[in-house]
Specification:
The protein is an alpha/beta fold. It has two domains: about 1-250 and about 450-475, Aldehyde Dehydrogenase, Chain A, domain 1 (3-Layer(aba) Sandwich); about 250-440, Aldehyde Dehydrogenase, Chain A, domain 2 (3-Layer(aba) Sandwich), CATH 3.40.309.10. It contains 14 helices and 23 strands. It has helices at about 40-55, 60-75, 80-90, 95-115, 155-165, 180-190, 205-210, 225-240, 260-275, 290-305, 325-340, 390-400, 415-425, 455-460; strands at about 1-5, 5, 10, 20-25, 30-35, 120-125, 130-140, 140-145, 170, 200, 220-225, 245, 250-255, 285-290, 345-350, 350-355, 360, 365, 385-390, 405-410, 430, 450, 465-475. A seven-stranded mixed sheet has the order 15-18-19-14-13-20-21, with helices on both faces. Strands 10-9-8-11-12-22 form a six-stranded mixed sheet, with helices on both faces. Strands 1-5-4 form a three-stranded mixed sheet. A hairpin with a 6-residue loop joins strand 6 and strand 7. The chain is globular and about 75 Å long.
Length: about 475
């Protein structure tokens, strides 16, 4: 299988011969190839995006919404196929992959409806003969860059927001997981999206970003990925005075107060931590547990982590799949080794599983000093770091210590603590007593080094719209 590019309404192997290899993380075996876009392909995509934008912006929001809802229905119809592709190329359990696909269809539906409500406003004028209006217009063709950990849902956030606003898009999807991105785009094709409105490319990320972003055709950039790459793309985008949305890394704190049901908090936290083997930007990583419940919480959490069934994502009963590639295994081994060298205790896990594929044990570390790398750098893997706190002042201080600010979690039954944590934790998203993030109708984004802007919710749609003020004198 060779994954193809989609440019101007046509699937193509590209103008060059460069190819990337796609691997199954459960076995490490090559499963296919992906075509790499050359400059000629990017030029064709830019021309198509400009042409598609002129058509799509002139299409009414009502008609755009009908096409998008057809794409959502098509994605649901292809959900099993897309989920299996995600699992083969990314590794997560196929049940998790199916949920990702179904929620992605919900994202398309929600944006399709909300795009019909991109209201402007009338401003009372100082003269009876003057009408003052603000209208919302699509910003223009978009360059979007999405990651491999959620190859459908991260891409669909950009696609759905851009199309609902009336923009065209060139999506650079991840080379590691191309098939599910192709299935998503085929759903838009099947729904009747005009040629040039949706374009899909693969290739060397730096080459593509450094060619697309400076182009006069592109009016906005959206990127989901690491902080260092985000900084680079932000500088490049700012140099050309273009709008941007950045959803970057996280190192989410999870605060457990002494008034909670410990068993329930541990069970809920366990599911959040080891979903997608911890390869989730909003995954809780720094567990801050109050003294009175620390031992009970750690015992319950570590017992649950040790009992998780790790295996191939397609295997029945698998609760956690492999890491996405060998680089992630090396990175997690490095974090654990460094923590132990700094005095940490491995409560459970801490080692690679077998020598086939990229499996790693669900891991819990205790007694980890703040000097250890894992207390300061995003691990992006199946490792939970447990730390004690005495009072809420200490917990809030530690939660806010880092320059990350994407997601934060807390468990407490006291209203005063809920109110304080909601106010004082520095994060773009805070979820208390449950995993309440990343729904289509809610904003998804961070502050500080974790990015700027939001995807999801009305905030995500507004990122692809720009206001125009119109003043008319009639008499």
């Amino acid at each position: 299988m060779t994954a193809s590019l989609f440019i101007d309404g046509r699937w193509t192997a590209g103008s060059g011969t460069r190819r990337g290899t796609v691997f199954d993380p459960a076995t490490g075996a090559a499963t296919g190839e992906v075509a790499f876009a050359e400059k000629a392909d990017l030029d064709a995509a830019l021309a198509a995006a400009q042409k598609g934008f002129e058509v799509w912006r002139a299409t009414s929001p009502f008609e755009r919404g009908k096409v998008m809802r057809k794409a959502a229905d098509a994605l649901r119809a292809h959900a099993d196929e897309a989920a299996q592709a995600i699992t083969r190329e990314q590794g997560k359990p196929v049940g998790e992959a199916k949920i990702e696909v179904m929620i992605s269809a919900d994202h398309i539906d929600w944006n399709a409806e909300e795009g019909r409500r991109a209201y402007g406003r009338l401003i009372p004028a100082r003269s009876a003969s003057v009408t003052q209006a603000v209208v919302m217009e699509p910003v223009g063709p978009v360059a979007a860059f999405s990651p491999w950990n959620f190859p459908v849902s991260q891409l669909v956030r950009k696609l759905a927001g851009a199309l609902a606003a009336g923009c065209s898009i060139i999506a650079k999807a991840p080379e590691e997981t191309p098939t599910s991105a192709m299935i998503l785009v085929k759903c838009f094709e099947e729904a009747g999206v005009p040629a040039g409105v949706v374009n899909l490319v693969f290739g060397v990320p730096a080459e593509i970003s450094e060619y697309l972003i400076p182009s006069r055709v592109i009016r906005k950039m959206s990127f989901t990925g690491s902080v260092p790459v985000g900084r680079h793309l932000a500088a490049l985008t700012a140099q050309h005075l273009k709008r941007m949305t950045l959803e970057l890394g996280g190192h989410a704190p999870l605060i457990v107060c002494d008034d909670v049901d410990v068993a329930l908090a541990a069970k809920t936290s366990l599911a959040m931590k080891f979903r997608n083997a911890g390869q989730v930007c909003i995954s809780p990583t720094r567990f801050l547990v109050q003294d009175a419940v620390y031992d009970r919480f750690v015992d319950a959490f570590a017992e649950g982590a040790a009992a998780l069934k790790v295996g191939a994502g397609m295997a029945e009963g698998t609760q956690m799949g492999p890491l996405a590639n060998g680089r992630r295994v090396d990175a997690i081994e490095g974090f654990v080794r460094d923590a132990v060298e700094h005095g940490a205790t491995v409560r459970t896990g801490g080692e690679r599983i077998g020598n086939q594929g990229y499996f790693f044990q669900p891991t819990v570390l205790t007694d980890v000093p703040l000097s250890a790398r894992i207390q300061n750098e995003e691990p992006f893997g199946p490792v939970a770091v447990m730390s004690r706190f005495g009072n809420l002042d200490q917990a809030v201080k530690e939660a806010n210590r880092l320059d990350f600010g994407l997601a934060a979690y807390a468990f407490t039954t006291r209203a005063d603590r809920v109110n304080r944590l909601s106010r004082e934790v520095e994060s773009g998203m805070v979820s208390i007593n449950h995993a309440g993030l990343a729904m289509p109708e809610t904003p998804f984004g961070g502050i500080k080094d974790s990015g700027q802007g939001s995807e999801g919710g009305i905030e995500g749609l507004n990122a692809y719209l720009q206001p125009k003020f119109v003043s008319v004198q009639t008499g």
